[in-house]
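step: validate -> pass
step: tokenize input -> pass
step: predict -> running
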Amino acid sequence: MSDAPSRGEPALDDLGPEDGPPVLLFHGHPFDRSMWRPQAERLAAAGHRALVPDLRGYGAAPATDPTTPFDAFARDGAALLDRLGLDAAVVGGLSMGGQIAMEFHRLFPDRVRGLLLAATSAPPETPEGRDRRDAAADRVLDEGMDAYARELLPGMLAPATAERDPDLARYVLEMMRAAPPRGAVAGLRGRARRADPRPSLARAAVPTLVVVGTEDPFTPVEEAHTIRDLVPGARLEVLPGTAHLPNLEDPEGFGRALDPLLETITP
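step: predict -> pass
step: emit ->
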């Protein structure tokens, strides 16, 4: 990791110039804010202010309730902007973090200057999906994170990536294993009950980038096309050979995809 300047609380990376155009990034499940480190450093080097918090219950941010509603995650992001005296930001996220970015836009559309939606899907949970997430939450409560994380890993990274970069595979596994079980469970239960963001996305009036990997088993390319078609003027970038973590599998390609979005945002 670089020596880019960082400010803020223990559960927040705040990189880049304080007066730079702000970019707020939400991590996925069951990760922490470190998953965005390559992008945060690139943003800071380009003069943007990268704000990357640990979600409530993940990383260094304590869990507070058995269920964390998605609006709570989004309101935490808005409260962070308030604390820093920022009216609005480019808002993005990956996987569950992308769904939180959609919820942020649903609640606070005037505070969004651009949207980054990576490896994510828009529709709310089906009854079957809710049952699956609740069952996973029950299992994590009973067994902890280890077996759950090991089962998720093959879908997080494309097989070729895991073979080529075993250090990355170990890092992703350890990041998932280190997730606080109570926080991961609260997030799973909140995710199972998230609101439908599609009506607000259909009215979005900001530059929007959708990113997906060709090998993603959790949010296939078709899901990204659905979001691209839903959001007016959205741009889709498909990163070949990557799975559910394209920002870590191909950080250079992800950065090149993100650059045009950021170039549309004036200070």
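step: describe -> The radius of gyration is 17 Å.
step: cleanup -> pass
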